[in-house]
Amino acid sequence: MDVVYQQCGGIDVHKKTAVACVAAPGPDGQRKKQVRPFGTTTEELLALGDWLGEWGVTHVVLESTGVYWKPLWNLLEEHFRLLLVNAQHVKAVPGRKTAVRDCEWLADLLRHGLLRPSFVPDRPQRELRELTWYRTTLIWERAAEVNRLQKALEGANIKLGDVASNVLGASGRAKLEALVAGQADPELLADLAKGRLREKRAALERALSARMGPHQRFLLREQLCHIDALDESIERVSAGIAERLRPFAVARSKGTYLAAQCRRLAARRGKQKAAMAVGHSILVIVYHLLAYGEVYSDLGANYFDERDRQMVERRLVRRLEGLGIQVELKPRGTSEQLVAAG
Fold it and tell me: Which of 43-47, 157-161, 301-305 shows the lowest per-residue confidence on average (mean pLDDT)?
């Protein structure tokens, strides 16, 4: 079988150990193989990298086992060509002997080019993904806490959610704070409604007519505090994400189709709807790039200006042709003129 990589290594990564195998030609030209275990502390992993370098290793393969591969990848990616492979794909390759260690098998497969690497983003993208994933988990946690709050209200027979669409809105929050403070008069609680919710005061009085015990007030207070803490954490993480995205925010770019689209829509519909529309356009672009293997070609910042100009030209030509006039468009300098012949 052909040898693709002469000096390669395979690492079997676990929580507390990383067993590495190197396969490289020795001084006599014969292939040498050596296996050595390492710890997973930063000092041990750096020593592993030094050991691989001493053997002249150029390519290293790791299995994607949980999150244990990430520290090793972060420390070695600047010094070696790393490949991350799916454990199921490795098991599907036939020919392994039972006595062969995982790291040896990985090194042998890499040596003969029999591994299919997984995509690993660069470090800035990996860091950004960790932040966005953490923000997602915070949002899930907040939603779960809001559901627990709803159940606590139902346990006290408070039907606020049946009248107010958002129990944590300005009006709902004012009522909840009053309930925590010990207010039990449904009329006074309903009077805290704001905006259009004041039109439902009668329904609010019926929904807030209940008996809330001390332990329910305690639970409600803790749940509101937890939600507030989650909101603050989500805001901080969102700010961190926005700061990392600042160099790539599409709306701030110049001379691109997406930036022109954002400015065009923001003038008519506002910045928030414009951002949503641009996000949808990006998803459509990514779908075509991945589904059809196309190469992205930016339409340019003047795309909409050119499109609008062409629409005006076509409309005028159709009107003239409708009057029985033959029309031919000819450029004049930097503009165009209509040449009409009756």
Answer: 301-305
Q: Is residue 3 part of a domain?
A: no
Query: Looking at the 3D structure of the chain, how many domains does it have?
Result: 4
Q: Which domain holds residue 333?
A: 305-341
Query: Which ranges of 77-191 does DSSP label H, i.e. alpha helix?
Result: 87-92, 102-111, 123-155, 160-163, 170-180, 186-190
The predicted-structure confidence for 110-138, as pLDDT tens digits, reads as follows: 999 999 899 998 999 999 999 999 999 99
- Show the tokens assigned to 118: 């997984």
- Sequence-separated contacts (24+) of 267-270 with Cβ below 8 Å: none
Q: How far is CA 137 from CA 114, 123, 130, 132, 258, in A?
A: 37, 21, 11, 9, 30
pLDDT of residue 100: 77
| Same domain (yes/no): 54, 157 | no
Dihedral of alpha carbons 91, 94, 98, 104, sign: negative
Packing angle, helices 214-245 and 123-155, rounded to 10? 160
Q: Contact, 1 vs 101, CB < 8 A? A: no
Q: Is residue 149 part of a domain?
A: yes
Q: How far apart are CA 170 and CA 179, in angstroms?
A: 14
- CA dist., res. 95 & res. 93, Å (int): 7
Which DSSP state fits 335? E
* 227 and 309 co-located in one domain: no
